[in-house]
Every structure is written in C-alpha cells, then in structure tokens.
Amino acid sequence: MALRDGSLLDITVTAAATYIAMPSAVSSKLWRAIADDAPLTLGDPRALSLCWSVFLFVTTQAYSRERRGQNSRTVWFETKVLGRPIAAKAIAHQGDHGEPVMTVLCADEPDPFNGLKDP
Predict the structure, then answer these.
(1) β-pair type (24-27, 100-106)
(2) pLDDT digits over 88-103, tens only?
C-alpha cells in the first residue's frame, strides 16, 4: 500500500545490484533529502549509492546503532550519497505476506513496522 500511495519508492532492482537480496524501498522523505524533487528512475546513481551504503554498513557492522525486534532489525548510519550527507536507518522486516523486505528511511522518521518509538 505504501508503494501505491508514494510514501515508499521501490528500489528492489537497484538493491539487487548491490547484493541486497530482498524487496527494498526508500521513503519518499529520504529520497527528497537525497535528490530534492528529482524522480527516482531505474539506474539512478543516487539510489545505487544509497544501496551500496546500506550493504557496506550492514556487512561491516559499521552502523552507529542497532535494534532487533521480534520481527525486525534496524540499523542507523550516516553516509554521503553523491556528496550529500544523510542520516538514515535501514529496517529489515516482514512484508505483507511474511516475506523479508528492507525499507530505508531518514533516521528521524518513525518506525512503522514494529510499533516502537525510536530511542
């Protein structure tokens, strides 16, 4: 539903190119922080840079904070996307049908997946 209403943007194809093997989305708020009003397009270098950042922070455990919920894992990190600094969090959680998915949000956005407030 969030993909249909535009609050999340699908980056699955780009994420797969960076070895992230699950359906993935970026919040429209984070995309605006990265790209202003430019639309997300397939192969956008900003999306690719964001996905590589997520992959590298998770695999090297270089994130600044982590929280594990019953059905989710959230990591916070700061990076630059084509020179633009961003504070973000990546949440691995269950999708609508129980499948693993990942959503990348601005660090200050509420977590819509586990009902908990961020510390």
Answers:
(1) parallel
(2) 999 999 888 889 999 9
